Amino acid sequence: MAEKSFKYVIIGGGVSAGYAAREFIKQGVKPGELAIISKEAVAPYERPALSKAYLFPEGTARLPGFHVCVGSGGERLLPEWYKEKGIELILSTEIVKADLAAKTLVSAAGEIFKYHILIIATGSAVIRLTDFGVQGADAKNIFYLREIDDADKLVQVIKEKKNGKVVIVGGGYIGLELSAALRINNLDVTMVYPEPWCMPRLFTAGIAAFYEGYYANKGVKIIKGTVAVGFNADSNGEVKEVKLKDGRVLEADIVVVGVGGRPLVTLFKGQVEEEKGGIKTDAFFKTSVSDVYAVGDVATFPMKLYNDIRRVEHVDHARKSAEQAVKAIKSNEEGKTIDVYDYLPFFYSRSFDLSWQFYGDNVGDAVLFGDNDPASPNPKFGSYWIKDGKVVGAFLEGGSPDENKAIAKVARVQPPAMNLDLLTKEGLSFACKI
Ligand code: FAD
């Protein structure tokens, strides 16, 4: 079998890979030195589009429109860009074996790739109900969403099941964004999740009450406190019913499951140190194996701001960690050093006419401020999280770019706030004066 050798190989062709490629070019690589090996058939793109405009009936996003690095306002890297720069994009190629000691990767088709420096950017895979043996979970028209192929299947079934019934399993951001996108397509949408409110890992009860109310006003039905325990299919094998643990049965032409992901690290098991489910790195995304870096969803890295070690599954971190790793690789070659990664957690979501941003850490006491009436014509509200007398996290729905900058600054600066009643009263103006 053919063997190819590169100075730098990125395994994975998602968000991190694209931003790493741009940084390599900024820092200077020679044609033929860098290869990106990806299971997907397309050049790196901004993955968050898949649960948003990719599914809209109007204003639809399609490639090449959302190739990286447009998501952060940068130049769009089309497949031709990689060619021009002498970066080899090796697509539709799944790596099935990685030998970090021998610096060798092997693809499903048996091709061998050698590298001097490896960047692991394999991202996450969705958790499937079939993983837990949920009865009937292999029926047709039960979907998951991670890659563009998954999104294409959803686009197809939206066309086939016009005005049909959809059950969304899971109340996280994927469940919320997909419910909105499918409702906009005029489907009859019901969400099911076990928790007392949606997005419980981030939202407080007060924040969630707004979104649940807003979704209800848009015609999305929400069933909380129970889970899907089985599915019934028709004679074609297509899903028809979702059975809930509380005994209820919901009709369904389409089911979409968004119950979380897990980082794709199995290829490297036993070869590299792991922590918190990811590959352990230092503040330059260097792993325990020399010449091997890990970025994006798979990296468990030191979070300087909180003196903690964390793994982050957000697009902003995927971009920034990739850039940091490439800067570290190139400066190391020149015998120079760079600053440690100093990340401020940032996460956002958009659905219907809504748009929120969150910065920092959602720990300690939370206070809610602003107009969070779901029926309000222009709802704008937020939340601060206060720990040890300091504001450590901030959330804002409906903020302007400047207001979002202000809450980011609050989360970074961590100003003191002893009087929570006053903070509630001051609301957004507290952030704007920092
Ligand atoms: P990915 O972008 O997932 O890229 C991983 C790549 O590796 C893929 O191309 C995959 O095919 C490839 N790969 C994996 N294994 C192999 C292998 N063995 N061989 C070859 N290739 C392999 N974050 C936000 O902050 N805001 C959002 O609104 C938001 N929306 C999202 C919506 C969706 C539908 C999804 C799925 C994620 C969303 N995220 C969002 C999360 C964000 O997209 C991820 O955190 C980010 O993509 C991680 O980047 P990554 O490079 O680590 O992994």
From TrEMBL:
Which EC class is the enzyme in? oxidoreductase
Any Pfam family: Pyr_redox_2
Q: Which residue numbers delimit the Monodehydroascorbate reductase 3-like C-terminal domain?
A: 344-431
Q: Which InterPro entries match?
A: FAD-oxidoreductase/Apoptosis, FAD/NAD-bd_sf, FAD/NAD-binding_dom, FAD/NAD-linked_Rdtase_dimer_sf, MDHAR3-like_C
Q: Per its record, what are the GO molecular function terms? A: monodehydroascorbate reductase (NADH) activity
Q: Needs which cofactor?
A: FAD
Q: By its UniProt entry, which Gene3D superfamilies does this protein fall under?
A: 3.30.390.30, FAD/NAD(P)-binding domain
- Cellular component GO terms, alphabetical: cytoplasm
Q: Does the keyword Flavoprotein apply?
A: yes
Q: What is its EC number?
A: 1.6.5.4
For the FAD/NAD(P)-binding domain, which residue ranges apply?
6-321
Listed A to Z, the keywords are: FAD, Flavoprotein, NAD, NADP, Oxidoreductase, Redox-active center
Which branch of life, at top level? Eukaryota
Which reaction does this enzyme catalyse, per its entry? Answer: 2 monodehydro-L-ascorbate radical + NADH + H(+) = 2 L-ascorbate + NAD(+)
What is known about what this protein does?
Answer: Catalyzes the conversion of monodehydroascorbate to ascorbate, oxidizing NADH in the process.
Name the family the entry cites: Belongs to the FAD-dependent oxidoreductase family.
What's this protein's name? monodehydroascorbate reductase (NADH)
**Species the sequence originates in:** Salix purpurea
- Output the lineage of the source organism: Eukaryota, Viridiplantae, Streptophyta, Embryophyta, Tracheophyta
